Amino acid sequence: MRSRKTNKTPAWRSLLGGCLGGGGGVGAGDKQRKVRPGGGGGGRLSFTDLSGAADHHDLSVSLVGSNLHVFSVPELRAATRGFVSGNFLGEGGFGPVYKGFVDEGVKKGLKPQAIAVKLWDPEGAQGHKEWLAEVIFLGQLRHPNLVKLVGYCCEDEHRLLVYEYMEHGSLENHLFKQIPAVLPWSTRLNIAVGAAKGLAFLHDAEKPVIYRDFKASNILLDSNYKAKLSDFGLAKDGPEGDDTHVSTRVMGTHGYAAPEYIMTGHLTAKSDVYSFGVVLLEILTGRRSVDKTRPNREQNLVEFARPCLKDPLRLARILDPALEGQYSARAAHKAALVAYHCLSSSPKNRPDMSAVVEALEPLLKLTDDVPVGPVGPVGPVVLFVAAPEPVEEEKKERAPRKDGRRRRPMSPKVTVSPRKRAAAPKEEFWVWHLPAEQKA
Ligand SMILES: Nc1ncnc2c1ncn2[C@@H]1O[C@H](COP(=O)(O)OP(=O)(O)OP(=O)(O)O)[C@@H](O)[C@H]1O
Ligand SMILES: [Mg+2]
User: Member of which family (predicted)?
Assistant: First the structure.
């Protein structure tokens, strides 16, 4: 339910006033300011609501966020010990991230805790819009599998975001940089289930959200390796009414974005499902979605791995060798089938995220066939080779066409290079976020 109130806006108005160029930014004098959840409407404020309302300064605190703290730059400088390099956690398209600590009494109602502070780099790939999307979406959405936005800072040209500190950093670091150690099978599966629950929550919300940037670096891990989604800078409100999709400029990360979204700009929740399939493949294989250091035919993970997912023996050959065979072959095969369907080239053949959760969660209990001790390079001996019932899509792929012509291969091809696509009319909007390692 949307409602607009004009008599109760100081915190939000000053945030937007200052941050959308209307003057009156949140300054150091607003130290104890906190944007609270509204008492009225109950519905989430959509990004579109906000943009429209911001134009005519008609916004209500009651529609905004939950318990967001408004910080000043000096407060965050103190919390991070002057953004000292020893506190540097990493850097993405928005800017650098630093670890910090808020002491007792710095903010009324905020308990002393470790935080992660993300600073906007004006030279970076993202800007104010992404900052605002993060505040709007993450400020209002609360779920155990979404990272908690503690607050923000919007002072003059400064844009900062303050998150709960996630002790084990990103899934990307663990999978590909193996910091501090190889993630065991059960942890990987738990992470996949947690991340799937985060996406399912977004898709099934009263006002659905399409996350649009699902990838290993945006899955953060807390002290118990519980997965939480971060970075809502590219998130979009889902289609409304009879609309089947949102038309948007194509943004995302090379290797994770769904092929039909890249080609048409039509965004649906199923685009997230495809990206989930890519991450699930990364979790299973320990390979990056795009890896230019590998031989040509192995560089695109989906193209390389999808044909192996249905056959347990072929699957065993591509599972992450770092696991040293310490996984349940049955669970791995079932998880691989989930990935297979998520990666269908046809969005309607991909499962909903709630179905993905239902399929993956029971696999956590499949532990009786985990080998004791390391096994050979292609994984454990596969004793259980269940021939799965062909699902509808597979049946279709196998069946000859009525017109007698051969079917086109169904495997998705995400091979359109940004340069090639630059000639197409939509191209001016295409923004590649290259995986961290290729940014340099
Ligand atoms: N809340 C947090 N707690 C702990 N570490 C964090 C937190 N948020 C981010 N980080 C660290 O900072 C790094 C950079 O994060 P950031 O989201 O800015 O970039 P990215 O995900 O690598 O790229 P992109 O800009 O494409 O999202 C992460 O990989 C992670 O290691
Ligand atoms: Mg990120």
Answer: Belongs to the protein kinase superfamily. Ser/Thr protein kinase family.
